[in-house]
Amino acid sequence: MLRFILRGTGKVDAALTCEPTVVNGNPALVLRLDGEIDGVMAIRVEDARITGLYYVRNPEKLTRVESEIPLTLR
To answer: pTM higher than 0.85 for the full model?
Structure first.
């Protein structure tokens, strides 16, 4: 998967880092190339099994990745 991501960016010699997060209630990783967000890899888990793996690179969909939205009780 790492080779796929790096080849898709055209930067084979780039520094790739990742950090865990939660997206839409599911575990995810924020991937950065040379410190800039490249994408988010989200994992859908059902019954303790991974049932979906999604990699989002669309800049319009990544605009709120770095902002935390506080949860409130109603």
So the answer is: no
